[in-house]
Design goal:
With about 180 residues, this protein is α/β, with parallel strands linked by helices. The radius of gyration is 16 Å and the shape is globular. It starts with 8 loop residues before the first helix and ends in an 11-residue tail after the last helix.
Length: about 180
């Protein structure tokens, strides 16, 4: 089962119910939502369409996963605090699910650490975003997935998107299907 995330509505409810009611925690959730919004606006203007909180076959969950106009898969891992950025050891797992990987950062976050070899700067792009817009400050190189893997990921993304749309229209449908 995929855990809830601060970017998803389920994650907002879970965070409200379990996290201490601190200003800092609330601000991080708000910042993450705003970064996601800005990135989605940037991508939409460039014909890349994203889905937030996309469960991956590896059991991980991409903060944003999308498809560009050329059929390439893009994943964005959003970070709004230095501790979260430096403490995240799971992000390399995302590279096997996309053609391009980006870090999505809040404007206040120092991105100098992303130049360190441990963050694979040759394989990862960087986007800085707020709630209104975003800017790609380092383009992500295309590291092409195998065609069969890309097809499987696109099918999973499409099915998840369609399921979410239908469940949004009729919540009773949530009981059916695999629940991704």
């Amino acid at each position: 089962m995929v855990e809830s995330s601060p970017l998803s509505p389920a994650g907002w409810a879970a965070a409200s119910a379990t996290a201490p009611a601190t200003v800092a925690a609330g601000q991080e959730l708000a910042d993450a939502r705003m970064v996601a919004r800005g990135i989605c606006r940037l991508f939409a203007r460039n014909d890349t369409w994203c889905l937030p909180e996309m469960p991956l076959r590896s059991g991980r969950r991409a903060d944003l996963m999308g498809i560009d106009a050329k059929g390439r898969i893009v994943i964005v891992e959003i970070k709004v605090s230095r501790a979260d950025l430096l403490g995240d050891g799971k992000w390399p797992d995302y590279l096997e699910h996309c053609d391009r990987f980006y870090w999505g950062l809040a404007p206040h976050l120092d991105r100098a650490c992303l130049e360190d070899a441990a963050f694979l700067p040759h394989a990862c792009g960087v986007i800085v975003a707020d709630g209104y817009d975003a800017e790609i400050v380092r383009p992500a190189p295309t590291l092409a997935l195998a065609a069969a893997r890309r097809k499987a990921e696109i099918e999973r993304l499409a099915r998840t998107s369609l399921r979410r749309q239908l469940v949004g229209l009729d919540a009773d449908c949530a009981a059916w299907g695999d629940g991704v």
